[in-house]
Amino acid sequence: MQTLYNPSQYPKEIQAKLNRMPPLAIEIANRWMLGWPQTVKGLIEANQYLDALMTQEQQEREVLSQPGNSHLARHEIVQEYGLNLAPPTPTTT
Are 4 and 29 in contact (CB under 8 A)? Predict the structure, then answer.
C-alpha cells in the first residue's frame, strides 16, 4: 500500500480523502509534495488541490493503460503523452 508523504502538510479533511484514493493518486500526491511543496500549498489554499489531483490521476491512468509502453518507466510514459509531472499552478478567481 502506498503511504502519503508528510501527511501533516495537508488539512485533516484532505488527508482523509487522500487516504481513500487509489495508489496512483497517492503516488502523484507524493511526487507533487516532494518536488513542488509550495505549489501544493497554493493549490490547497485556493481549494483546487483535490480537483487538480483527481484530474492528473485520471489522465495518468489513461496514458499508463495504453499498450506498447511496458519498456518505459511510468514518468517516461507520462511525459511521452505530453502530461506534466508537476502540479498545475493555482488559479485565482
Answer: yes
